[in-house]
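Researcher: I'm preparing a figure for a lab meeting and need a structural model of a single chain. I don't have an experimental structure, so a prediction will have to do for now. The sequence is pasted below. Please return the structure as tokens so I can convert it later.
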Amino acid sequence: MTAHAEVLDIVAQMKAAERAFVLATVVRTVSVTAAKAGAKAIIAADGTIVAGWIGGGCAKGAVLKAAREALADGEPRMVSVQPENLLAELGVSAGESRDGIRFASNMCPSKGTMDIFVEPVLPHPSLVILGASPVALSLAAQARVLGYHVTLAAPAAELTAQPDADAIIDGYQLGELNDAKRFVVVSTQGKGDEAALRAAIATKACYHAFVGSRRKMASLRAKLMSEGASAAAIDDFKAPAGLDLGAITPEEIAMSILAEITVERRRGQRAANQSASRK
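Model: Understood. Here is the structure written out token by token.
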């Protein structure tokens, strides 16, 4: 197996395992460089190079910095590593960006130029649904269409149909979940509300919601707090879940919840796009 094929094989494995990483590809070289156009490297979330090679220290530092930023905001970027005299001719400094290109200085004796495309590959966003209600089942099916990795947790005896989910858990003991941007929705609707909420509170996520009225959530809040649950953690839940679209059917309620999750999921990207459009 060639080095190029090995890198692509590992890319496929890491994507299947829902692991975050960066694929760095040398797209252009000028003069003498250690790596040539087409060279690739996989950079893991912890900054280690898992496979491949894009040259030595001349480019490595700049690429690893760009990789960390790409994993943080989910946006690809181009890095151009050039000797100081060429940067001066362009009127840019090391670390400066122009027209979407981040420039870095090549301090190696070779004095070559390398352009490297840094592409983040992120796991599917994770939607964890606790409950077997009609809303829960509809939410799972709709989320899968939108590219979420769906985990549905509910007692098996309560499932009247096979959920459309990537993972199904019998009960509310969630255990280890895939490492991704996570959204949690409790949609038990009267069956196991407290147990599901306790599991959801213990699950780290950027969005927690409860399918039920404010009055129902207030009652459950008081009960859970009497058992020692954190008031701040409970108050982090959006109840009722979803945007106010006037939804009535389970399918419509599920759609309103996904709309609200989409707002949360795209929040940072919307801000970045709006900032870029003003430039």
